[in-house]
Amino acid sequence: MLELKGKNIDRIRKLTGEAIGRFGLISDGDRILVGVSGGKDSIILLHLLHYFQKTAPVKFRIAAATFDPGYPEFNTAAIENYCRERNWEHHTVKLPMEQLLNSKSLENSPCGLCSRLRRGKLYGMADELKCNKLALGQHLDDLIASFFMSLCRGQGIRTMAPIAYPQDPKHPVIIRPLALVPEELLSETAAENTFPDSGICRYKELLKSGDREYFRNLSDQLTARIPDFRSNFIHSLGHIEPEHLMITPALTKKR
Fold first, then answer.
1. In what order do the strands lie in the sheet with 173-175?
2. CA-CA distances (angstroms) from residue 230 to 41, 42, 106, 217, 235?
3. What are the Cα distances from residue 2, in Å, to 45, 81, 168?
């Protein structure tokens, strides 16, 4: 079975199409690099973009890239084979993360450096392939967790935007087509399909104790109390009222 199957496919496609249209994520002539980690989110995203490539009124091209950190337990070949079976363009970018982390004594806090280097490698690949956009697989629950992390750590009222324009014009525009899709739909779809066994992150247990996992779990708790929590969150993020926030009067008047 080369195409996605499952009871949630139509719902996921509808929400992804809504995000693409509402936030203007894809334009005619785009060449999009899709960051494929091997996890369910990025694999499903790659499937969706190939689906919309065939059905959308705009014409765009797709390439996929996987960041290989060089750990033995990470199976890049499985992802490469999965894409090859579907005639999807795929590239691998490698970096010896173990040596880099050891050299900087960051074995106990690897995520920050790994994230920056991974993004940098994907930027480089996008430039090499002349891709003007980089599609990432963050979904609605990722955006919610990011919002709470920023809020509770005093970093401002913000989250990962569905579309983010780079400060450096040489970098691609980042798009997140799954921004309106709850993780639950993606998890159920992953269970109904056979995805490549790319291994797991060496630091999976460390991630479980981090802020992002904590706030993801908090979203489930809030939904148990407020069933419409996720849809309410989407509405609230698009309905900001600066005059009711703790900002200076001068900034409020400029609105």
1. 90-94, 61-68, 31-35, 133-135, 173-175, 163-164
2. 18, 21, 35, 13, 9
3. 14, 12, 38
Question: What six digits make up the tokens of 28?
Answer: 């005619």
Note whether residue 178 is domain-resident.
yes
- Residue whose structure tokens are 């004594």: 105
pLDDT digits over 171-216, tens only?
999 999 999 999 999 999 999 999 988 766 655 555 566 788 888 8
Which range of residues forms the domain containing residue 90?
9-253
Q: What is the CATH number of the domain that holds 226?
A: 3.40.50.620
Say if strands 163-164 and 90-94 run parallel, antiparallel, or are unpaired.
unpaired
| 132 secondary structure, DSSP code | S
Compute how many other C-beta atoms are within 10 angstroms of the C-beta atom of residue 11: 14
The tally of domains found in the chain comes to 1
- The string of pLDDT tens digits covering residues 59-113 is 999 999 998 887 777 888 999 999 999 999 999 988 777 677 677 666 666 666 6
Mind listing the pLDDT tens digit for each residue in 16-30?
A: 999 999 999 999 999
E strand map for the chain? 31-35, 61-68, 90-94, 133-135, 163-164, 173-175
Measured at the CA of 86, the angle between CA 82 and CA 88, to 5 degrees, comes to: 90
CA distance 167 to 164: 9
- Distance between CA atoms of 214 and 216, rounded to whole angstroms? 5
Cβ pair 122, 135 in contact under 8 A: no
Paired tokens of 88: 């999807």
